[in-house]
Design a protein that fits this description.
The complex is a heterodimer of chains A (497) and B (184). Chain A is mostly helical. Chain A has 22 helices and 2 strands. Chain A is globular, with a radius of gyration of 22 Å. Chain B folds into 2 domains: 2-86; 98-183, no CATH class. Classes of the chains: A mainly alpha (497), B mainly alpha (184).
Chain lengths: 497, 184
């Protein structure tokens, strides 16, 4: 507690510190919320300038940007179906349908409150339990367990967003195959690259999600306009009521735990947290078929989890020097710029710096709640702009977002082709959510599978010899069996009078 | 009743075509995987192991999709929650309209234009065309929107955050460079 208070004191006693804190907070929110921009752009642009800042201000700035940017990306996911970053993609699955139902403000209200709760709880946990939890996660979750966890996640994903279970699995299969494009993670053998250098690095994930979500949405709305079936979303500024929040309490607790543990796992970070948490929300729901159509829990779960992961991601970063994502990797750069190496000795060598980081992330999470509440009542008015004018804007911002990341025109082409494919897939009731999840979980999963199989002597049954992995594999198999039974019961009318 | 039967037949035909596309896709993926289906020094199962697992899952799912068209289920009650939810999905889009086909083609032309002429030169034309295709016919609105939105993009991405965007090729590369020089 004393260290936390000291960190807070160092943070707020200097006017420059306060300015940087507010600047980082607003910058993260704005960059996260403008379609086509994301918090990584801001972090990358600022990185060289941190050399002129004192070390404590530089690292504090990145902590604040990280927290506020993860929340900011939810705004565009909810309003325009454009996830600000990968970890906000599951938020769009239900956030955007809520907007279409005239509940944009409610969706943002859920996102802001749950982001604040997830972030704050995570920051507290980070301060209290860094050491024991880090030891547990790092020692328990090896490649075998991560593979089993991902297998479990994939079995749930297949049931999301499609009427037909077969179409859910086909969507997932498409996502997994797309994830295979590029050099394989073990021997760097080119797969499905057709000799193109561009494809050797894999299909860009950001262009893919922009295409499948944002661009396909423009095409669908354009088609509706031409058929006269387009309905403009209603605008309301209703904030979720206390009772509505209370109904989400278990989802928040569950997602905080999932987010926290996913954040601790090195190399996985907030993205897996958001996707897994969404999966779990679907699995635990009494009406899983409602997910993908504007279910508030579909916003609450990923937004709580991705913010909960921010605090936890500091553990492998600070304790082991392992980043959980691109932004945490940039944080290592900030430490290096100031002649410091992150790793086990950082808590001994620079405890003040670590506690400033912890304190800044805690206060940033709380600040998001107040800034976000104001934002939820104002930013929804963007929806008053007619779609005929929004559409070109969405196309331009998405294009800039797809291009600016790697400076490659093929990324833009990929985005538009994914948009056209997304149009036909959505029209035929395939799940773009499952495709996206297939790509992200498949990429992580294949790498862990290769490592796990090597450990298990290439014997798949070996998964059942590791207790944690066995539980998850069995849970995954039960999920498949349950969803088959549920669909069959619906189809054949079993148990219906 | 006859109409319902016709609709069911149409839906079945469409689903069978989709299943055939998936089968073709899985077969193609399998055939292409032959190229890299070799054991690796550190991983004897080889780079094709994971794609093979996925292809198997895809084939099974396509098989289930076909089988589901020939299994005789019961008609669902009208208050079936699944239908209530998914009826709001993308069922209201109908067959492709000329407007949507134009919307498919325009961005592809824009990408080509960006590559050859540069983002700064081609984007105003894209904005104008896209807004027109979306249904705006008033020249006042078309021009005002294009000019003002273009100005915002230039200000934010070139003046404030220096985002590198396509510069075009040949003479247009120099032109874009000069324009950026003027802006910045």
């Amino acid at each position: 507690m004393q260290e936390f208070l000291h960190g807070t004191e160092l943070l707020f006693t200097s006017p420059i510190g306060i300015t940087i804190f507010i600047g980082g907070l607003v910058g993260g929110l704005v960059f996260g919320a403008i379609p086509g921009l994301n918090v990584l752009t801001l972090a990358a642009v600022l990185l060289p300038f941190t050399a002129w800042f004192p070390a404590e201000h530089a690292i504090m700035l990145y902590g604040v940007i990280y927290v506020s940017g993860v929340y900011g990306g939810a705004i565009t996911a909810i309003l325009f179906n454009i996830p600000g970053s990968v970890e906000n993609a599951p938020t769009a699955f239900d956030g955007y349908p809520m907007t279409q139902k005239g509940q944009a403000s409610k969706a943002i209200g859920y996102a802001v409150t749950c982001s604040a709760i997830g972030g704050t709880l995570s920051a507290i946990l980070m301060m209290v339990a860094t050491e024991p939890l880090a030891n547990f996660a790092v020692s328990t979750f090896g490649p075998v367990e991560i593979t089993a966890l991902i297998f479990f996640g994939l079995t749930v994903v297949a049931g999301v967003g499609s009427r037909s279970l077969a179409k859910g699995w086909l969507s997932l299969g498409l996502g997994l195959i797309i994830g295979c494009i590029g050099n394989d993670p073990v021997g760097a053998t080119p797969r499905y690259t057709f000799g193109m250098l561009y494809l050797s690095g894999g299909v860009g994930f950001i262009p893919l999600i922009l295409g499948l979500f944002a661009v396909s949405e423009v095409f669908l709305q354009s088609q509706r306009m031409s058929k006269g079936t387009y309905e403009r979303p209603e605008i309301s500024v209703d904030f979720p009521s206390r009772a509505e929040f209370w109904a989400m309490r278990w989802a928040v607790v569950r997602s905080t735990v999932i987010g926290w543990f996913s954040g601790i796992l090195p190399g996985v970070g907030a993205t897996l947290a958001a996707f897994l948490s969404y999966n779990e929300a679907v699995r635990w729901s009494k009406t899983p078929e409602k997910f993908g159509t504007g279910e508030p829990e579909g916003v609450v779960a990923p937004e709580t989890a991705n913010n909960a992961a921010t605090g936890a991601a500091m553990i492998p970063l600070l304790a082991l020097g392992l980043p959980g994502g691109a932004l945490t990797a940039m944080m290592i750069g900030v430490f290096n710029v100031h002649d410091m190496d992150v790793g086990p000795l950082i808590m001994v060598e620079a405890p003040e710096l670590v506690w400033i980081l912890f304190a800044s992330m805690f206060w940033a999470s709380l600040a998001i709640f107040f800034l976000g509440m104001a934002e939820s009542k104002t930013i929804v008015h963007l929806l008053r702009v007619p779609f005929t004018l929004l559409a070109p804007g969405i196309m331009v911002f998405s294009t800039i977002g797809a291009y600016a990341l790697r400076g490659n025109i093929f990324d833009v082409l990929t985005m538009f082709l994914a948009g056209i494919a997304g149009y036909f897939l959505r029209k035929s009731d395939y799940s773009v959510a499952a495709i996206v999840m297939g790509v992200i979980l498949g990429k992580i999963g294949e790498n862990s599978l290769a490592q796990a199989l090597t450990i298990l002597d290439f014997n798949y049954l070996g998964f059942f010899t590791e207790p944690v992995a066995a539980v998850m594999v069995i849970a995954g198999l039960l999920t498949v069996a349950w969803s088959l039974y549920r669909r069959a019961r619906q189809y054949f009318g079993w148990g219906r009078k | 009743m006859a109409e319902l039967g016709e609709a069911q037949n149409k839906s079945r035909k469409q689903t069978l075509i989709e299943a055939a596309i998936w089968l073709a896709f899985a077969t193609l993926a399998y055939v292409l995987a032959v190229e890299f289906d070799k054991p690796l020094p550190t991983f004897p199962l080889g780079a094709a192991h994971w794609p093979h697992v996925i292809i198997t899952v895809t084939l099974i799912a396509a098989g289930v999709l076909i089988a589901s068209q020939f299994l005789h289920g019961v008609s669902k009650p009208k208050d079936d929650v699944t239908d209530q939810i998914f009826d709001e999905a993308e069922d209201d889009v109908g067959p492709l309209s000329a407007q949507t086909i134009a919307m498919f083609i325009l961005p592809l032309l824009w990408v080509l234009g960006m590559h050859k002429l540069g983002f700064l030169v081609i984007t105003p034309f894209f904005l104008l065309a896209c807004t027109w295709i979306m249904g705006v016919r008033s020249w006042k609105i078309l021009l005002t929107f294009t000019v003002s939105f273009y100005a915002v993009i230039v200000l934010v991405f070139y003046k404030l955050i220096f985002t590198p965007l396509p510069m075009g090729a040949g003479w247009f590369h120099s032109l874009n460079g000069e324009m950026i020089g003027l802006i910045q």
